[in-house]
Amino acid sequence: MPSFWKSNRNWLTPVLLLAPGLILFFVVIILSSIETFWISLHSWDGFGAKVWVGLDNYKELLDDPQFYVSLRNNIIWIVMFLSSLPLGLAIALLLNQKIRGMRLAKSLFFMPLVLSTVTVGVIFGWFYDPTYGLLALIFHSFGAANVPALLSDDFWVTPAIVLAALWPQVAFCMVLFLAGLNNLDEEQINAGRIDGAKGLNMLRFIVIPQLKQISFIALAITIIGALRSFDIIAVMTSGGPFGSSTVLAYQMYEQSLFSYRFGYGAAIATVLFLIMSVFIVWYLRGLVKAEEK
Fold first, then answer.
1. Does residue 251 have a pLDDT over 70?
2. What integer best gives the mean pLDDT of the chain?
3. What number is the average pLDDT over the span 50-78?
4. pLDDT in tens, 104-160
5. Is 47 inside any structural domain?
6. Left, alpha or beta for 99 (phi > 0: left; psi -120 to 50: alpha)?
7. What transmembrane ranges does the database entry give (predicted)?
8. Which residues contact 101 (CB under 8 A, 6 or more apart)?
9. 113 and 31 in one domain?
């Protein structure tokens, strides 16, 4: 046995180190995805026997108006969430200055990242309260009599929730960009200064190109985070009013656990998985291309 280990440890060591993670990935991700797709081909209440229905759940999904509302809300999440990248970069550039008291400022901007999403949802639920919330106090200070109840308005409810979720997401992008700014090539920056580059030109032609990989990672994680949004919606509105703030993840949860339609919920989960897979494949291709350069 010792001789076998010595002669094969070059490939056995990485295999043993990777095995726990690969087994966990296979069981939790691959097998669960296959099982979810299998359930989506059945009518099942979660307790009794599964009844084969084929693609009927998917056909019903295409005729379900709530599905398109959820899909539209996911698109709104993605579009609004993308603003976290320029906002995070702007704050990172501000905090990267060597000014007295900047460490305290970094801690304050970093704080939303350590809060749970549920906590953020509760805080912004209080903020949006049309009677006693901070938003109401701001409106009253300007003499406004009527304060909009954003979480009760079917048009504004989704943007209001996304704004709440943006708070920690901007902090996350800020941390990524701060790490990137601390690893900039000083020689390129000094060469740019000699050539007269400063301000926006320095940012555009020297700083941002060096943050390309960080920006790519932030973009991919932001899009996937927007697609998997769930907990803050559950805390702030539970998908209301009348399903107007529901996204695909929450609709899947609602159909499965409240309507006891696990087959239909699995069909929604499968569609969401396919949408996310497009971004995941794009992300992995980008990583491979970056490694090849």
1. yes
2. 89
3. 95
4. 888 888 888 888 999 999 999 999 999 888 999 998 888 887 888 999 999 999 999
5. no
6. beta
7. 12-34, 75-95, 107-128, 156-181, 202-226, 262-284
8. none
9. no
- State whether 137 and 246 are in the same domain: yes
Q: For the chain, where are the E strands, in sequence order?
A: 42-43, 51-52
Looking at residue 287, what is its pLDDT? 73
Does the residue 50 lie in any domain?
no
Per-residue tokens: 6: 């010595």
For residue 95, what are the CA distances in angstroms to 109, 113, 175, 204, 211?
Answer: 9, 16, 10, 18, 16
Query: Which tokens go with 275?
Result: 């949408």
CB atoms inside a 10 Å sphere around CB 81 = 23
Cα–Cα distances (Å) from 199 to 147, 207, 235, 277, in that order, read 41, 10, 42, 39
- Domain count for the chain, please give it: 2
Rounded Cα distance, 255 and 246, in Å: 12
- Same domain for 3 and 78, yes or no, is no
Q: Based on the fold, state whether residues 269 and 147 are members of the same structural domain.
A: yes
Residues 205 and 278 in one domain: yes
Q: Which of 18-22, 44-48, 143-147 has the lowest mean pLDDT?
A: 143-147
Domain with 6 in it: 1-40
Amino acid at 165: A
Tell me if 197 is assigned to some domain: yes
In angstroms, what CA-CA distances link 155 with 7, 148, 174, 236?
67, 12, 30, 15
